[in-house]
Amino acid sequence: MDKTLKREYEKLKQEIAYHNYRYHVLDSPVISDAEYDRLVSRLRQIEALHPEWVTPDSPTQRTGGAVAEKFTKVTHPRPILSLASAFNEQDVRAWYERIYKLDERVAQSAFVLEPKIDGLTVVLHYRNGIFVQGATRGDGEVGEDITANLRTIRSLPLRIPVAPEGPKPPEYLVVRGEAFILIKEFEELNKKLLEAGERTYLNPRNTAAGSLRQLDPAITASRPLVLLTYSIVYAEGDVPQTQWETLQYLRALGFPVSDLSQCCRHFEDVLASLASWLEKRDHLPFEADGVVIKIDDLRLADELGFVGKDPRGALALKFPAREVTTVLRDIVVNVGRTGVLTPNAVLEPVEIGGVIVKQATLHNFEYIAEKDIRIGDRVMVKRAGDVIPYVIGPVIEARTGKELPYWPPQTCPACGQAVEHFEGEVAWYCVNSACPAQLVRNVEHFVSRPAMDIVGLGIRIVEQLVEAGLVKDAADLYYLRKEDLLKLEGFADKKAENLLAAIENSRRQPLSRLINALGIRGVGEVTAADLANAYHDLDSLSRATAEELQSIEGIGPNIAEAIVDWFARPTNQRLLEKLKAAGVWPVITEAAPAKAGAVLEGLTFVITGTLPNYSREEAKELIQQYGGKVTDSVSRKTDYLIVGEAPGSKLTKAHELGILVLDEAGLLRLIRERGGENI
Ligand code: IVH
After folding, report:
1. Tell me, what's the pLDDT at 592?
2. Catalytic residue among 13, 116, 294, 382
3. Among the listed ranges 249-253, 288-292, 344-348, 644-648, which one has the minimum average pLDDT value?
4. Ligand 1 site residues, Cβ closer than 6 angstroms
5. What percent of the chain lies above the pLDDT cut of 90?
6. Ligand 1 probe mutation, 76, 80, 83, 114, most atoms within 8 A of CB
7. How far is the CA of 82 from the centre of ligand 1 (A)?
8. Ligand 1 center to residue 83 CA distance, Å?
9. Model pTM greater than 0.90?
């Protein structure tokens, strides 16, 4: 009886490990979650009857390790080496030249490229296929025993081979890998920690390290750690002699191995592949800080020896950093168009990805308090793609005690009036409508591309006009005379004429753009278009009640209130009178109604590749029909790139510029989401 039960038990363990592997390593389960749960509960049942059968490789033993006082030390069977870094193609070539000079066989060797995952090195020991110990890298000679924590990682095999048909592992096998957390999970975890009022992590790497060094494995178990393995540190028995075969071998045993890795026959192929690795970076679900280039022939790599702790046979080509630390010198406060105050970090200048960053956003005052950011702190700053640089948080460990806590200002830094805080909002506002900082922002918004689109009227000129007292509200733009402009610094005949012509042109902008230009809180391009369609001119819109406004789809009580409020203010009424007197008063006549859904108005599209259902011309017509503009080449002015099959260089350009990319279905969705009809 016990014998059959024992057989069932062993089989169950194997089966569960296999399904676990299908789910967590291969991402392709072959049974349902319910079936899996059933197998596990049967296993638990047997283990309850026979606790003496339970071995550490049982799937039930992933969690439940004891809480430790501290970690014990583990001496690695071989030094856990590090990697020399390269920062550009030239460095990579120089590396090759160096090792070729040492050993000409390098010219015959293949190379393996792997993602350099920004996680935590782990060293995993298997005896007779059973996971017996796991350690951190430590100083490369001695690490810390984190076995109980590592067991909680679902993709880590507790027994190898996981699949019955896998190769028989050597008696003693030590594998090296990287434990990390996916970017998405990192963001979710931080959100949860923030909600719980706990300290958040700076980045995924930091999170993985913090999670693995928890003394209570139950906490580690609650952290979504994953694993990828890439080398064999030590083996008593036969193992492959090349890096590429090692990766296949580890995979066959059931270890998670990155499927991005690539084998290059020759060094020239390595160079040719590097650009595509840089591109891959932004699409990876995890943080990678570079690509590792390895000599495929492991014996040759070994013979090349090392310099310090860096083996000569491998090299990490580092991606340009996106996160760096620097000192927060000061916090300054900007006043936005709606009077909202935003804190900005003044930083000790620092290079991030080829750009010198001196300022970064701190989002809002609550963020500063939540993250406990202090002036003088060493802070982590991130700049990625087209994202505005922002302060992630302080490096608490670097505190000296001289840092100063920060309190939000009580008065507006531009006009000195007391600031206000509205119930339920995080933001602080300057409610002085005559505040010069707000005026600059307001005019800036009025002339911007999706609003009145006055070309050539940038922020500097707006500031000049406001400072000189020529512009006290946006309507003053239409009263500017050439002689006024000539008095300003940097203005000669031509520049003044061009600016006046651009302002003149803007008189003909449609009503929806003018409504958007007014800068009513909550009214953007889409709502402005809806309002134009519903009211046809500013006179009738100004008479609308909050109730009426709410009957328009997409307008809730807050926006309705903001609109009524805006029209009720005397300063705004004066602005409207001046606009009307200047002839800036677009009206939609019944004879020429605005298209029932000019929902793409103000947006510029570029189309590339072959779309599945629309020809290029048809797609262009469709976009235009909904008020969008289609141009031929991708530039900073492009809002969306629509891609079909075989997209070509426009896609690369769009990625470089951080432009949003949609396929045909995405375009249709966009139109629908913006309220486009008949689609
Ligand atoms: S190879 C001799 N391969 O990068 C082998 N390292 O110092 C040296 N890393 O923290 C390491 N992904 O854990 C190698 N595919 C990869 C890697 C990788 C990430 C980490 C490694 C260490 C650092 C290199």
Report:
1. 42
2. 116
3. 644-648
4. 81-83, 114, 116-117, 121, 178, 230-231, 292, 311, 314, 316
5. 63
6. 83
7. 7
8. 7
9. no
* Ligand 1 atom at shortest distance from the alpha carbon of 261: 15
Cα(247)–Cα(240) distance, integer angstroms: 9
pLDDT in tens, 96-148: 999 999 999 999 999 999 999 999 999 999 999 999 999 999 989 999 999 99
What residues have CB less than 8 Å from 149, skipping those under 6 apart? 65, 134, 211, 212, 213, 214, 217, 220
Contacts of 347 (CB under 8 A, 6+ apart): 326, 327, 328, 329, 357, 358, 359, 360, 379, 381
Atom 17 of ligand 1, nearest CA residue: 116
Distance 113 CA to ligand 1 centre (A): 12
In angstroms, how far is CA 415 from the centroid of its own chain? 36
Q: Does residue 152 register a pLDDT over 90?
A: yes
What's the CA gap between 514 and 532, in Å, rounded?
A: 9
In order of their start, the domains of the chain are: 2-61 (1.10.287.610), 75-318 (3.30.470.30), 323-398 (2.40.50.140), 439-581 (1.10.150.20), 604-673 (3.40.50.10190)
Q: Nearest-CA neighbor of 328 among 404, 370, 280, 379?
A: 379
Tell me the per-residue pLDDT of 248-303, one tens digit each, with 9 for 90 and over.
999 999 999 999 999 999 999 999 999 899 888 878 899 898 999 999 999 999 99
116 is catalytic: yes
Phi, psi at residue 261, to the nearest 5°?
-60, 150
Question: What digits encode the pLDDT tens for the residues 546-562?
Answer: 999 999 888 989 999 99
Range 169-198 average pLDDT:
91
Give the residue, by CA position, lying nearest to ligand 1 atom 9.
Answer: 116
What's the CA-to-centroid distance between 167 and ligand 1, angstroms?
25
